[in-house]
């Protein structure tokens, strides 16, 4: 998939329609700068917006993704519905991941707070119970923080490598 080619096609389609980047940005509810980035090929629209653009310009989504107009018939309803379902699934996957990371970080925060309270109540860890809970809470909170950092770093790394 050639982003510059796609961007050039999006620019040509917009010009054929006789509208400005500002007008398209307003229609798609994005900024002018976003439309400019699409048309220069430095960024691609989300799949939902690609589908809207396909409908708006009256071209097949596959033509946009190929970066060239072929004059084929408009994308059929089944294909469009499948693409929307895939996009929805991907969005749900993101939500589940964010929820998981939030839970892990909340656990880290709560256990870290308990650890600090134990330090305040018994700074010398004179009792075996406090000593155990101090070590347990400290260890689990650091492990949860590490899991959160690793999880978000991996997602970030995947997002960066996909855009290049």
Runs with pLDDT <50, length 5+?
none
What is the helix content? over 70%
Multimerization state? single chain
How does the overall form come out from the CA principal axes? elongated
Order of helices and strands: HHHHHHH
Structural class: mainly alpha
Features:
single chain, 164 residues, mainly alpha, 434 Repressor (Amino-terminal Domain), 2 domains, 7 helices, 79% helix, 0% strand
In short:
The protein is an all-alpha fold and 164 residues long. It has seven helices and no strands. Helix 1 crosses helix 3 and helix 6 runs antiparallel to helix 7.
Structure description:
The protein is mainly α and 164 residues long. It folds into 2 domains: 3-66, 434 Repressor (Amino-terminal Domain) (Orthogonal Bundle), CATH 1.10.260.40; 90-163. Helix content is 79%, strand content 0%. The chain contains 7 helices and no strands. The chain has helices at 3-17, 21-28, 32-40, 47-57, 61-66, 77-121, 128-163. The radius of gyration is 25 Å and the shape is elongated. The chain starts with a helix and ends with a helix. The mean pLDDT is 81.
SSE inventory with pairings:
Blueprint: H1 3-17, H2 21-28, H3 32-40, H4 47-57, H5 61-66, H6 77-121, H7 128-163
């Amino acid at each position: 998939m050639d982003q510059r080619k796609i961007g050039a096609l999006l620019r040509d389609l917009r010009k054929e329609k006789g509208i400005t980047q500002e007008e398209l940005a307003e229609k798609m509810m994005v900024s002018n700068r976003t439309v400019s980035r699409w048309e220069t090929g430095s960024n691609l629209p989300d799949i939902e917006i690609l589908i809207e653009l396909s409908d708006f310009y009256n071209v097949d989504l596959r033509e946009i993704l190929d970066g060239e107009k072929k004059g084929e018939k408009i994308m059929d309803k089944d294909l469009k519905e499948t693409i929307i379902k895939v996009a929805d699934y991907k969005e749900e996957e993101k939500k589940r991941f964010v929820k998981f990371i939030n839970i892990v970080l909340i656990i880290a925060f709560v256990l870290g707070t308990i650890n600090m309270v134990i330090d305040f109540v018994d700074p010398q860890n004179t009792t075996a119970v406090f000593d155990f809970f101090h070590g347990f809470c400290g260890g689990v909170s650091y492990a949860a923080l590490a899991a959160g950092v690793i999880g978000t770093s991996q997602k970030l790394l995947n997002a960066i490598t996909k855009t290049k």
